[in-house]
Amino acid sequence: MPWRSDIPADIPHYDILFPDKDEWVNPGDAVVYKPFGGVAAGPMHREKGLLSAEIDAPAARASRRKFDVSGHYARPDVFSLAVYRSHKQPVSFG
After folding, report:
1. Which of 24, 88, 91, 92 is deepest in the core (most CB within 10 A)?
2. Is 24 helix (H, G, I), strand (E, B) or coil?
3. At residue 33, what are phi and psi to the nearest 5 degrees?
4. Torsion region of 93: left, alpha or beta (phi above 0 gives left; psi -120 to 50 gives alpha)
5. pLDDT band per the 50, 70, 90 thresholds, residue 1
6. Long-range contacts: 48-57, Cβ < 8 Å, 24+?
């Protein structure tokens, strides 16, 4: 909701949280990026609207091979997962 007037006035501390009636509560800045970087559309700063762009589908597929979508979960030095099938105590202090 971008405008103070879009927020119900009966919420607690309304006037303290939103002192300026013309204030943008969230200025937006929506952006569509191209698969290998660069802006395809936007940003929409302090605008209401629908942001859309045409994306090159083959480039999007190719970019997935170069981008680690699982992030830090794919790094064994940062994240590990262990599954114990036997009953364990929920918390252990060492």
Report:
1. 24
2. strand
3. -100, 150
4. beta
5. very low
6. 48/2
Which residues lie below 8 Å from residue 81, measured CB to CB, with a gap of 6+? none
Question: What's the sign of the alpha-carbon dihedral 70, 53, 46, 15?
Answer: negative
CA torsion angle for 11, 16, 21, 22 (degrees, to 10)? -120
* C-beta separation of 51 from 39 below 8 A: no
What is the distance between the alpha carbons of residues 35 and 58, in angstroms, rounded to a whole number? 10
- pTM comes to 0.48
Residues 24-78: tens digit of each pLDDT: 777 888 999 888 888 999 999 888 889 999 988 898 888 777 666 566 566 777 7
Closest to 60 measured CA to CA, from 72, 69, 73 = 69
The structural domains of the chain, with segments of one domain joined by +, span 4-74
CA distances from 16 to 7, 12, 24, 53 (A): 13, 9, 15, 39
Side chain identity, residue 33: Y
